[in-house]
Amino acid sequence: LLLGTLLWAPWxxxxxxxxxxxxxxxxxxxxLHKNLEFTRKIKGDVVALRHVVCDTFQxxxxxxxxxxxxxxxxxxxxxxxxxSRTFQxxxxxxxxxxxxxxxxxxxxxxxxxxxxxxxxxxxxxxxAANLSSNIQQQMEDLGMATVTYPSEGQGPLPTFSSRFxxxxxxxxxxxxxxxxxETAYRALRHLARL
Length: 194
What we know:
Blueprint: H1 2-12, H2 20-23, H3 26-57, H4 66-72, H5 89-113, H6 118-141, H7 163-193
Helix pairs in contact: 3-6, 3-7, 5-6, 5-7
């Protein structure tokens, strides 16, 4: 119960977020509802790939892999602007968009790890790119400041010293992407309720 309260506490602070200029816009509400469903679909595909990693490599429990994870240098794309007390749609959208671009690139490691599921990974990459483009377009439509970073600036794909490290790396890329999508979903849902 305490954990649930702590996880939802940042969202309570958002109810006073100054977004009156967006809340009544029908096109904005339509954008939010469509992309809520799209985010849910992407998350479902990520969960399906996590099940494949679990079934194929017997890597299912994050807490058992934390020591290996620390050596891999795989980090979570930031989304602190989507649940901070000073929530601003512009900053949150920018972080979601940028994070989707990062995970789009990271999914190449999953395609390498699971060649038999390349079709699902490619669909996931396409969906992540499309959702990122949707957010970029909506930001432009709303007159929000947008910053586009070149894809080269995202850094190279992680390199793994062994097949086991590659498997654990794939596990954490998917686990982090799932958490990222859950936070993005909550932020979009919050905006839809304003």
